[in-house]
From TrEMBL:
Interacts with the Sec translocase complex via SecD. Specifically interacts with transmembrane segments of nascent integral membrane proteins during membrane integration. GO terms for biological process: protein insertion into membrane; protein transport. Keywords: Cell membrane, Chaperone, Membrane, Protein transport, Transmembrane, Transmembrane helix, Transport. It is a multi-pass membrane protein. Residues 382-560 form the Membrane insertase YidC/Oxa/ALB C-terminal domain. HAMAP family: YidC_type1. Belongs to the OXA1/ALB3/YidC family. Type 1 subfamily. Residues 85-370 form the Membrane insertase YidC N-terminal domain. The keyword Cell cycle does not apply. This is Membrane protein insertase YidC. It is found in: Cell inner membrane; Cell membrane.
Amino acid sequence: MQQWARFAILGAMFVTAYLLILAWQKDYGAQPDAPQQAAVAPATNSASDIPTQNTATTDSDIPQANNAAANTPSVSTSSNSQQLVSVKTDMYNVWIDPKGGDIVRLELLSHDQSKDSDQPFVMLHNEKGTFVAESGLIGANGIDSSGKRPNYEVDKMAYTLADAKATSTENGEAHKVLEVPMVYKTADGVEIFKIFKFTSGKYPIQVTHRIVNRSASNWQGQMFGQLKRDSAPDPGKSAQGIFTLGTYLGGAWGTPEEHYNKLKFANFNEEKLNQQAKAGWVAVVQHYFVSAWVPDQSYTAHLESRNSGDYHIIGFRSPLVNVPAGKQYEISASLYSGPKIQSELKELATGLNQTVDYGWLWPIAKLLFWGLDFFHKIVGNWGWSIVLLTLLVKLILWPLSAKSYRSMAKMRVIAPEMQRMKEEFGEDRMRFSQEMMALYKREQVNPLSGCLPLLLQMPIFLALYWVLMESVELRHAPWMLWIQDLSAMDPWFILPLIMGATMYFQQMLNPQPTDPMQAKVFRLMPIMFTVFLLFFPAGLVLYWIVNNLITIAQQWFINRSAAKQGLSTASK
């Protein structure tokens, strides 16, 4: 029975290692380096992005409208088409192309490009690659259905929060609201206002189209919003020494009924998104960050995806809008392009927070993240938050683990008696097994209980692995001294070596195998796991070290108590 317990413990540890390897290979396989992004304003969009209404197909860059019966009004020109409108808030540096009114570059001021760079992280760009947020009006009178994008007129070419003329209040806090208006006038008297609304302290950008119909006839069209991206690698991936890590890169969408669905770029045509949804969303997901269009909940949008040449496109279309002569109408959507902050994403749309993908252990991972976030609000350091979380987990599991450690301590105490019985009964294995089972029963020992602590820790350890890899809050988060990024490996391999040492001392407190081969395997396990964890996140290794130290203290105390108690048969 003791032999089976040893094999069970060994098997559990190797299952843990195997699952971690599978997760690493699936989510963090090596990829080629992403192209470098220049820190200068990007070039404007090409007019060839937009097909004419009569030639629009499902492979077009811009979606086909529900109807295409009426002629598109003649377009006006603007001298601003070769310049970009810059917008600077406390969250973003944004560049908008007046030609089409698309966001062609977006930088996150609160996140750097890498832990060794002070440059802001580039989410959207149109230089040395393409990842842009497009929107406009298509349909019978849509100004984006003519084969080239409209040239909007703008009041000025640069905006900051100092230009904000309005405020909003949320939870007692005042936020500045900056509006960036653009206008396009058709020859027959229709004015199209495209208004970008930025709110201080908030990532969502509201994009509104206001149609003022001063013509003599009905205006008809649809709003669209889409994300257009090439096949460049994930710029949010993390460098891990000789390994390069990057999580899921691709499309995603959700509705109130189907909260979160992945759609790989390669499947944008074969498994084409074609869904009607109210309160739905579409997104491009990458490591730590997400860009998403969220149509206004007042209307039912059509969610769709397609590939157009080298571009992957996922977006939405609004229902058909009719604006009678002399009337006006507004239609809106929100664009989120930033870090995967679960609380903000959850408020924006149902299921959007699930782009923080914790895998199949997400219930445990969410609890771990909530615990980390709670402790971080107290101590202000994610490393010490991991230490405190480990203490909390061990405290919760204390009753179960203590029972297991007491049984293992008794196994250590009865080891000499077992050795004596083995010598006494020699080759009589049946008699030896009977006497051993009687000893276990008399001393109330369960040899399989030694598996319990590891079995309890397996899902927690795996879930924490995904928390460290998916939670943007821990991206480039320092602990102390040489550990300046808990989501990356220890650059000096000190933590894995400490983990191996603590694992060795923990094993010394356990009853040692009587079989020489088993003993040799167990002695090699700390070395094997040290090598295995060399390239894993420092935060994960820190958790294991603290867990081992607490376990050593717990086992030492229980072993000492069991040794004092001794065998119940000793006095007989």
